[in-house]
């Protein structure tokens, strides 16, 4: 539609009324879709989920390349992997969980009926645009919710293309029209209109802190998560070689664009040299004091982190800082002596630069790890490489993170891809991180349960709900367009049929008799009305 | 009823229209609309009604749609009605926008009225000029408005009162869905135009039989008559497409759109004219003059109305609303098969048929008492006009069904006695 045809004389497209109108229309459509979706049974639901996962898998590589082209962030090969992980494996992880049928708890005399949230308004970031989009859409489909995606403007084109393809796949598999929608012109005021609309049932916010705080301030239920800044502790009990391999693999994975990436490596003097050697042989470049200073200036501008560096290759960043590194360098390691506000390199770095701090003792190391998360990233992720369970327990109980990855790459591990945590692209940062959820966000967070609760008194029997299910009426039948060839036939209930003694008798009446009968009944009705 | 309302109704009788005011009271509908928002009306005593009347689609997008309010306000910063003699920015812009969505490639011009009747008169005059013939054929129980020519095309219920019925045999009426009668009327080749509401609204939405409207168009071509589509109530996405005639496969020569095009905010009606029929606009452009027809503020609102209606979400909404209400109404019909006997439907144009010659009136009354405003069909009171808006929310639709089920049962009990009959 050519907007100029309508707006050339008076253009209100930038008014609050226009923004609210846009939001209302998409959210009302989503509400209709959610209403119909709630009629679907589990088989119909899973058919849609599988179709969307297949579509996401099939275009994983293409979307990865396009995401890197559009945003300049990350590594296409790694993005492809993430796009794939958020397709089939995500569905497999939740395949056995039923968010459609009711469940019976005989012991507690309770029956639980899943009730989808309804309309989800989901923000997706520029850093992991397609993987997050896949993930949020699949969560919504598993739980029979409608979802409206608001992509980050920097990843707008690829997000629209991906969401449109997934919506098409979903609808081809029977999803209600509008169950998946994407906001094609995201802007801060427009996003606010969606977030504050009473037509939004829950906001699923992944993005920068201001956006997450805005979601929580919207007056609507929100699942928003804070930033990361994961400390990783390498203990004396660790397999140092394996630890270095895992850390370098994690930091270089998609150039550290996952918010679960290790930010500050902490160790103790006993294993420092061994660790430095192992890091080098794993592809890390250890910077000198001058080089570290150059990186500090380059990465941290007075107004914050240099977005130019987000998701860039280690060699590119080194070149920008005039640091000569071997061509096969995967990450840059910057030794730091302090942790806290005075050392900017101890903050979150969405690029393959890892700070290295050597604490005097194990106790101090743990205290420094806590300090990393106090600076930023509270409630998010932490990692440890150790074989001593007591150390692992001390570390995990001390750091204010809701997931502590052990002997594995943290980027992938905390997000559930190298551990058995739930695969996610929304890391619940819980109460430490000013969020409502402290675990990896999953479909279970998009459904609430109606609980049928019987009298606890043993004398009152519990009902037998085996085989008792609510009705799943499926798709709405298409209403006829009377008189248009090919639409459903008129479903008029002929009065004669309704008023006749029995269907068999009615069918035996000839047309003339039927007319006569109709006339008699009409006359009788008129008489009744006069009285 | 509040004292204030009683007093107001007296004033209404004294100063405005005693007959109409009293008739509504007699029908059990003591409605005085005060506040209005979306699809909700509020009686001056504060009672809320869900509006399923919408004045024939005038409030398609709801009452006081915020974007229409905004565009009208913004429009007043620059425009007023405009000078109807001169080329005008807004009139031309709307004409261009209408041509882009016209129901066929042959449409070229738009002429403007301030309301549907005036637009119909323009359409009839345009056809007469182009055909150089006077006769107009319409449908028995047709309704095209109350102006000079329009009123003659309709049921004489509205013309005789004013001694304004056709006396020269220039206006012929034939039964709807009767192609033989139509052909008989056209055979003499003395007919300028056939004017058809795509689905006759005031007649209770009898639906055109499959193939009827295209066959009428073919007959028009065969006997040199023009086809005027009155899309006042069927246009603007109410059938799920921009124009109802398109759904039936008809490309008219002239098309009239009114009511909804105004957004319910500023009066305007439009006549879309094909090149073949638009000769008078070149021959004598001053031939029809209307000071308020196509008022520029109305054009500004109409353009925003057209833009909103064409958003892709609206099409899905109409589909959902139509399907959902139909499924629910089918359930209700199954509960009261001896009273609620039929549903006529195309998109969100619906007529509910009751098994009594005045059956829609008690349903209307009980709906009114139960918070829904829908009106009976003046020319077929067995049928209730059931006209949900294009943007009706799911919550409102569900609430409508709940209230309809209650009202239909009450009306049935009133008409047929409270005990269910088992014939």
UniProtKB/TrEMBL annotation, chain A:
<dbReference type="InterPro" id="IPR015590">
    <property type="entry name" value="Aldehyde_DH_dom"/>
</dbReference>
<protein>
    <submittedName>
        <fullName>Aldehyde dehydrogenase family protein</fullName>
    </submittedName>
</protein>
<dbReference type="InterPro" id="IPR016162">
    <property type="entry name" value="Ald_DH_N"/>
</dbReference>
<dbReference type="InterPro" id="IPR016163">
    <property type="entry name" value="Ald_DH_C"/>
</dbReference>
<dbReference type="InterPro" id="IPR016161">
    <property type="entry name" value="Ald_DH/histidinol_DH"/>
</dbReference>
<dbReference type="GO" id="GO:0016620">
    <property type="term" value="F:oxidoreductase activity, acting on the aldehyde or oxo group of donors, NAD or NADP as acceptor"/>
</dbReference>
<feature type="compositionally biased region" description="Low complexity">
    <location>
        <begin position="489"/>
        <end position="511"/>
    </location>
</feature>
<dbReference type="Pfam" id="PF00171">
    <property type="entry name" value="Aldedh"/>
</dbReference>
<feature type="domain" description="Aldehyde dehydrogenase">
    <location>
        <begin position="13"/>
        <end position="281"/>
    </location>
</feature>
<feature type="region of interest" description="Disordered">
    <location>
        <begin position="476"/>
        <end position="511"/>
    </location>
</feature>
<keyword id="KW-0560">Oxidoreductase</keyword>
TrEMBL record, chain B:
<protein>
    <submittedName>
        <fullName>Aspartate aminotransferase family protein</fullName>
    </submittedName>
</protein>
<dbReference type="InterPro" id="IPR015424">
    <property type="entry name" value="PyrdxlP-dep_Trfase"/>
</dbReference>
<dbReference type="InterPro" id="IPR015422">
    <property type="entry name" value="PyrdxlP-dep_Trfase_small"/>
</dbReference>
<dbReference type="InterPro" id="IPR005814">
    <property type="entry name" value="Aminotrans_3"/>
</dbReference>
<dbReference type="InterPro" id="IPR050103">
    <property type="entry name" value="Class-III_PLP-dep_AT"/>
</dbReference>
<dbReference type="GO" id="GO:0009447">
    <property type="term" value="P:putrescine catabolic process"/>
</dbReference>
<keyword id="KW-0663">Pyridoxal phosphate</keyword>
<dbReference type="InterPro" id="IPR049704">
    <property type="entry name" value="Aminotrans_3_PPA_site"/>
</dbReference>
<dbReference type="GO" id="GO:0042802">
    <property type="term" value="F:identical protein binding"/>
</dbReference>
<keyword id="KW-0032">Aminotransferase</keyword>
<dbReference type="InterPro" id="IPR015421">
    <property type="entry name" value="PyrdxlP-dep_Trfase_major"/>
</dbReference>
<dbReference type="Pfam" id="PF00202">
    <property type="entry name" value="Aminotran_3"/>
</dbReference>
<dbReference type="GO" id="GO:0033094">
    <property type="term" value="F:putrescine--2-oxoglutarate transaminase activity"/>
</dbReference>
<comment type="similarity">
    <text>Belongs to the class-III pyridoxal-phosphate-dependent aminotransferase family.</text>
</comment>
<keyword id="KW-0808">Transferase</keyword>
<dbReference type="GO" id="GO:0030170">
    <property type="term" value="F:pyridoxal phosphate binding"/>
</dbReference>
